[in-house]
Amino acid sequence: MYIALEQPTGAHLLTDHNELAVPVTLRHTSDDPSAVHLVFPAWISLDEEEVIWTVARSLLAEGLAGPATLDAIRIHPHGPTHTVVELHTPQGIAAVRFTTADLHRFLVRSYEVTERSGEPMEPALDLGVA
Question: pTM value?
Answer without folding.
Answer: 0.84
